[in-house]
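From the methods appendix. Each design record in this collection lists the tokenized structure first, followed by the designed amino acid sequence. Records were kept in a plain field format so they could be parsed without special tools. The example shown here is representative of the layout used throughout.

RECORD:
FOLD TOKENS (225 positions):
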């Protein structure tokens, strides 16, 4: 059972206490809440993973955060610490503004190519950094690309919950979300980190067109589009 935290709850870790300010969003694997780090007086995002798979999911994501954190890359989310709250694993990250999905919805008209170009460059740099350490994100989509603020188009790639090592690739893996799934995944062929570049291409098309390039719900629909 998933015990959702409430506004006003205090989540204690070994280094500080986190005061829950509001819920940012909830998904299949857990909930993200905005918190105040009471000791350091800064706002952070705490990802609370759902029990009973909380430990396994946290262990997987943490293994990749340990790989990317030393890079200190400006386009990869910054991770602070891990702790437990009521048997649920909690991961603490820097607080970012909004994701690209929100940005697309809230943009009153077509997004200028200059802004799309700026986002593209940063995503390419993020993929280059991941490639250097042998990591495939596998879940690149507008929801997992965050703006640092509304003004200068600085972005960060988040959510390494389903990332894999390029050495651990298995033919036939069903990775990537539908609509952002590369042809080699759809066809069950051998794949590489190039699938992340396909995902970026779909995101950039989404930014320009303001709708999904492949609006599908199944692999069959993807293949027949």
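DESIGN:
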């Amino acid at each position: 059972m998933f015990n959702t935290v409430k506004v006003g709850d205090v989540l204690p870790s070994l280094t500080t206490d986190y005061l829950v300010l509001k819920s940012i969003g909830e998904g299949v694997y857990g909930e993200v809440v905005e918190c105040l780090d009471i000791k350091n007086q800064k706002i952070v995002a705490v990802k609370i993973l759902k029990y009973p798979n909380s430990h396994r999911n946290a262990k997987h994501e943490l293994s990749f955060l340990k790989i990317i954190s030393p890079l200190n890359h400006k386009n990869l989310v910054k991770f602070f610490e891990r702790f437990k709250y009521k048997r649920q694993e909690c991961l603490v990250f820097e607080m970012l503004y909004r994701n690209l999905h929100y940005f697309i919805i809230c943009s009153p008209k077509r997004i200028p190519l200059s802004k799309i170009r700026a986002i593209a460059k940063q995503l390419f740099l993020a993929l280059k950094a991941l490639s250097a350490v042998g990591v495939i994100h596998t879940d690149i989509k507008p929801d997992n690309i965050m703006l640092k603020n509304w003004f200068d188009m600085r972005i960060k790639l988040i959510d390494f919950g389903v990332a894999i090592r390029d050495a651990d690739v298995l033919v036939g893996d069903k990775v990537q979300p539908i609509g952002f799934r590369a042809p080699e995944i759809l066809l069950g062929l051998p794949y590489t980190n190039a699938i992340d570049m396909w995902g970026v291409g779909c995101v950039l098309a989404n930014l320009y067109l303001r709708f999904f390039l492949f609006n599908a719900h199944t692999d069959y629909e993807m293949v027949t589009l």
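APPENDIX NOTE: The longest strand covers residues 17-26.
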